[in-house]
Known about the structure:
The chain is an alpha+beta fold. Helix content is 57%, strand content 6%. It is globular. It starts with a helix and ends with a helix.
Amino acid sequence: MLSKEVDACVTDLLKELVRFQDRMYQKDPVKAKTKRRLVLGLREVLKHLKLRKLKCIIISPNCEKIQSKGGLDDTLHTIIHYACEQNIPFVFALNRKALGRSLNKAVPVSVVGIFSYDGAQDQFHKMVELTMVARQAYKTMLENMQQDLAGGAGPQIPPSPPTQDPSCSSVDDPPASTGKEPHYIEIWRKHLETYSRCALELEESLEASTSQMMNLNL
């Protein structure tokens, strides 16, 4: 199942970045603090996102719902808005406990920001590839649902667990329910087309990097 593959890929990427960060800390603690690979938590991620320091954001889809002003929904809304504005990929993957474990943390983690994925390009590019496939599958599913609601007889896809957009792939995220969705999910849906441009640019960049590596190997 694609969402499980994305979860596994995100886990591998984060574990590798944590390993690099820990190794740097053992060699030079001062330099390690100035050359962090990761940042955790809503406020810290949002702060560095505003400073345009992040290259990717990982969000747990089972964040607790807080609708008060300045609460979780508002903060995630803002994070997703900045990510789309800056064409930064944001991936919904893993539950909060699993996200924390992938970072060697004993506490649940809701959001992770990545400063640099140098040294873990393979994992990052694989994550991008998987999320682009999921994006297209999710887009097709939405089109089919809209056609069904409109009474159309458009192309159907085989029955399977709903696959989310690449920026929101997770095995823990439930299918569309009858209850009202969290506000940040509604915002994410509105940004689906905007984020597609980012995914396309990442795909072109990935193809260029692969071509360059093949030429170097010749």
